[in-house]
Amino acid sequence: MLQLYNTLTRMKEPFTPLKPGEVSLYTCGPTVYNYAHIGNLRTYIFEDLLKRVLSSNEYRIKHVMNITDVGHLTSDADEGEDKMEKGAAREHKTVWEVAEFYTKEFKNNLADLNISEPDVWCKATDHIKEQVAWVQKLEEKGFTYITSDGVYFDTNKLPNYGKLTGQKLSELKEGARVEKNSEKRNPTDFALWKFSPKGSKRQMEWESPWGKGFPGWHLECSVMARKYLGETIDIHCGGIDHIPVHHTNEIAQVEAVTGKPFVRIWMHGAFLEMDKTKMAKSGENFITLQTLKDKKIQPLSYRYFCLGTHYRKRLNFSWEALEAAQNGYENLCALTAGLGEPKIGCAEFEKKFTDAVNDDLNMPKALGVVWDMLKSSNPPHAKKASLLKFDEVLGLNLKDAKPIEVPDDVRKLMEQREELRKQKKWDESDQLRDEIADKGFRVEDTPAGTIVKQRRRV
Ligand code: AMP
Ligand code: ZN
């Protein structure tokens, strides 16, 4: 049975959706003012693995992802610039052009990483009317107040505010950023609608009952999740940075209006780090998928790299670790290609694999099962059949793995080398390895067999 860790209850729970056989899933999408970095992409890979595991448990999924194209400010404390307007100024383009460009780039990243797209993409700017209507509902219920720069949610009015963090409101207030906006009643209060600043013209702004402005970032996810998935949704995901502010506020806005639980299971992916610091778009350790491609690292090697660490554990990035993952992935492809046609799988390993992925997506353990199976004495056709099944969850495109073309002279050298190895004539077999390398190929002996690969051109 599938077990998932729920941030809300801080426990692994057996999963059952609200509607039998069907799962509603909302995942926070990108703020499209810049390229996604590989840290962001780690979170999207985790969410894709979740979808694949749900599918392997025969659930149908309705997946909604937003595109944040307005209202995400540079500070979580409702201050600072709108990231989108800042991006537009940097690139001397309109905000709309910037949003379109980076949305396209993001979708290309998803395709490169074999991440399936959501059933519904929704943009914040396409849902202004719905967001204004939601603020009106909150206003009618007495949850809002107005300051000189916007309409705010009064977090003191909602019992249970902050339940996702496991902290009391008083603790959250202490931890909240100290701000210049002294008109806020509580440090945890947040903007639902921000007024356009006086004296400067924003590219994106709309009329509202409270004045010209734009919606707060948290509001879009609440409103669009509810619109496309209903009042209570099964699973909502994002990175762990979203727990204390963004997701906490999404819950507050919805539950204040509906009085019902907004989300049943909250799932959060841990950070990709570099030198113990979170990878961030504003930081210097900003690596994109293109940076990897420029260094001849295939995007799917990065996916394989991510599979090696559980999604709730921090993952430290280093070029050496990534190259090792690329080598592991290439070996897996080469071995898969050499297995011939699939026929009846290895039941024992398939069971172990399912148990691992159903245990809160334990992908490192699942990869261990893959390699154990390859090393086992099962016949090649059975290994191939199981690998193809595993790959429906792993998403590593193993079905497309092709044996590399090896010229006859190299193949002969390989056969001779194999013979020498059997006779334990290591020095001579190493000499042949060098001869093979001179011809542009490299052989690697793994516990699952000998692999031949094209020599890397660096
Ligand atoms: P953003 O485009 O900044 O809104 O972030 C998109 C997603 O990436 C969100 O779910 C974030 O929580 C997540 N995220 C941001 N930084 C990292 C990181 N270093 N590692 C993993 N996920 C991250
Ligand atoms: Zn969101």
Name some characteristics of this structure.
458 residues; alpha/beta; Rossmann fold; Four Helix Bundle (Hemerythrin (Met), subunit A); 3 domains; 5-stranded parallel sheet; 4-stranded antiparallel sheet; elongated; binds adenosine monophosphate; binds zinc ion; aminoacyl-trna synthetase; cytoplasm; Rossmann-like_a/b/a_fold; protein biosynthesis
* Domain unit count: 3
Mean pLDDT: 92
Principal-axis shape: elongated
Number of strands: 16
CATH architecture heading of the largest domain: 3-Layer(aba) Sandwich
Specify the biggest β-sheet: 5 strands, parallel
- Count of helical segments? 15
Instruction: Please give the radius of gyration in angstroms.
Output: 26 Å
Distance between the termini: 46 Å
CATH superfamily of the largest domain: HUPs
The first-level CATH class name of the largest domain: Alpha Beta
What do we call the CATH topology of the largest domain?
A: Rossmann fold
Note the beta-strand portion.
15-25%
The stretches of 5 or more residues where confidence is low (pLDDT under 50) are none
